[in-house]
């Protein structure tokens, strides 16, 4: 086991989310330094939530009671070589975990576009990367340790009844102190950026390498960039690959932003954790002044979903910084947007103007409705609760789990109550 002090770079407790569109309404902010202190805090509070690194864009995690950061707890990384798993503190950032794992010869199968996010916060919202054969980050979770509403410590694992309902828990079932995830042997990747993809070739492009992201701007039907993260021993894409051309210098997904913030491209081989994310740990990810929305539809509906969005491209383009298209493999987790569905994911990085963006979000949702889109739990969406419930076969089971684990509504928030009324 390696134990560091509390995360050196972590601020006290954030008063607002990373994007700045949510100012937390908590009446008190806490940063306990031990699990016992955290348990006493939870037991004595009538309303409490955890905040991770604050990178989500909505108010699921906002409370009018106590907001607690777990970043002050001792940060530990314990590798179980026999099981091929690692147990980490919930507040640890994926980027810090990745570095430690790599030095021990291990990797995570996939990562999100940014390494700055906390493990527990990312898992709670089913954060994901891209890859047709890779599940989201929550799907790699083998066990959790939660501080439940009465302040007890509850360890759960894949053998626990209703575990599949607890992993993507929206922070509403308890405060997650430790997370155990599956690991794989460390590996190397190369990242190539290709320009100007025809939509007809999208499916082939998305399936062409370990992890592939496609970026577009909805100003033309053509797709601006393909980011191919491929096994280091795989040959580079040929010069005429799918009719694209090779980028001859590093790129940032958002035009005009510095490519130095991004992980190395141009085919330079490197460790998994320095190629799977688009952004480097020590730098600002994405644009900073932005909002995000994201929708998961069945992978087989990819072409039709894009065609449906063509009708509102004239609304999307003016408020868009960039749109990213990815894939995620199906899983069994109750509230995972990938629940029993291999998914095609349409992600929008919007300008940071809520009033201008919300009507466009509604228009996008209306166009995608025939494909039963499941929104990202950490981003901006306006889906009607009844419609959302109909898109998740285990929605009612999750509501029952909530009532069992949080009988006094201690972890309830206004947005959670909107979607899971009690
Ligand atoms: C620039 C940028 C890029 C992004 N890229 C991606 C991407 O590639 N893929 C993707 O899927 N998402 C992406 N996201 C979204 C992001 O991964 C999710 O919003 C994620 O939840 C953020 O984790 P966090 O630690 O910041 O969580 P927070 O925003 O702090 O919290 C999210 C939720 O988790 C709960 N929570 C946090 N910690 C705990 C805990 N210890 N116990 C219980 N509940 C807890 C909170 O109460 C809240 O409900 C991106 C976001 C940004 C800002």
Core attributes:
single chain, 422 residues, alpha+beta, nine-stranded antiparallel sheet, six-stranded antiparallel sheet, 11 helices, 20% helix, globular, disordered N terminus, binds flavin-adenine dinucleotide
Determine the fraction of residues in helical runs and give it as a percent range. 10-25%
Main beta sheet strand tally, sense and closure: 9 strands, antiparallel
Count of extended strands: 20
Number of H/I helices: 11
Q: Give the low-confidence spans.
A: 3-10
Distance between the termini: 41 Å
Give your account of this protein's structure.
Strands 12, 13, 14, 15, 16, 17, 18, 19 and 20 form a nine-stranded antiparallel β-sheet that branches. The chain is built from eleven helices and 20 strands. It is 20% helix and 25% strand. It has helices at residues 35-44, 94-103, 119-124, 163-166, 202-206, 302-310, 313-316, 354-368, 385-390, 395-405, 414-419; strands at residues 2-4, 28-30, 48-51, 66-69, 75-80, 85-89, 106-107, 141-147, 153-157, 175-182, 184-185, 188-197, 211-216, 223-231, 245-246, 270-271, 290-298, 320-328, 343-351, 374-375. The protein is an alpha+beta fold and 422 residues long. Mean pLDDT is 96; it is low at 3-10. The site of flavin-adenine dinucleotide (FAD) has 34 residues, from strand 3, helix 3 and strand 10.
């Amino acid at each position: 086991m390696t134990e560091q002090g509390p995360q050196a770079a972590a601020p006290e407790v954030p008063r607002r989310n990373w994007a700045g569109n949510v100012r937390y309404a908590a009446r008190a902010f806490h940063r306990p330094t031990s699990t016992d202190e955290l348990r006493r805090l939870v037991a004595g509070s009538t309303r409490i939530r955890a905040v991770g690194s604050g990178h989500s864009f909505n108010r699921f995690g906002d409370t009018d009671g106590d907001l607690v950061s777990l970043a002050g707890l001792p940060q530990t990384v314990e590798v179980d070589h026999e099981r091929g798993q690692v147990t980490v503190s919930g507040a640890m950032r994926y980027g810090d975990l990745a570095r430690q794992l790599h030095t021990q010869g291990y990797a995570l199968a996939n990562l999100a576009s940014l390494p700055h996010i906390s493990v527990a916060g990312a898992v709670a919202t089913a954060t994901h990367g891209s890859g047709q054969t890779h599940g989201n980050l929550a799907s790699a979770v083998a066990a959790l340790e939660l501080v439940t509403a009465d302040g007890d410590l509850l360890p759960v694992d894949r053998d626990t009844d209703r575990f599949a309902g607890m992993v993507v828990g929206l922070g509403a079932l308890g405060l997650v102190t430790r997370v155990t995830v599956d690991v794989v042997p460390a590996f190397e990747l190369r990242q190539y950026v290709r320009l100007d993809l025809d939509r007809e070739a999208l499916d082939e492009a998305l399936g062409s390498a370990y992890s592939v992201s496609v970026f577009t701007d909805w100003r033309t039907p053509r797709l601006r960039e393909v980011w191919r993260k491929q096994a280091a021993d795989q040959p580079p894409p040929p010069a005429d690959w799918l009719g694209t051309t090779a980028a001859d210098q590093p790129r940032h997904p958002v035009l005009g932003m510095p490519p130095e913030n991004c992980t190395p491209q141009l085919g330079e081989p490197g460790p998994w954790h320095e190629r799977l994310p688009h952004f480097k740990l020590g730098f600002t990810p994405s644009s900073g002044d932005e909002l995000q929305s994201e929708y998961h539809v069945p992978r087989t509906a990819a072409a039709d979903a894009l065609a449906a969005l063509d009708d509102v491209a004239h609304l999307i383009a003016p408020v868009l910084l960039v749109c990213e298209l990815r894939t995620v493999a199906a899983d069994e987790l109750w509230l995972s947007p990938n629940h029993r569905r291999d998914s095609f994911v349409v992600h929008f990085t919007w300008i940071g103007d809520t009033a201008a963006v919300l009507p466009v979000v509604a228009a996008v949702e209306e166009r995608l409705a025939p494909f039963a889109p499941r929104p990202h739990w950490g981003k901006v969406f306006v889906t009607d609760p009844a419609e959302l419930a109909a898109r998740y076969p285990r929605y009612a089971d999750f509501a029952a789990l909530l009532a069992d684990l949080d009988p006094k509504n201690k972890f309830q928030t206004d947005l959670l109550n909107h979607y899971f009324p009690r």
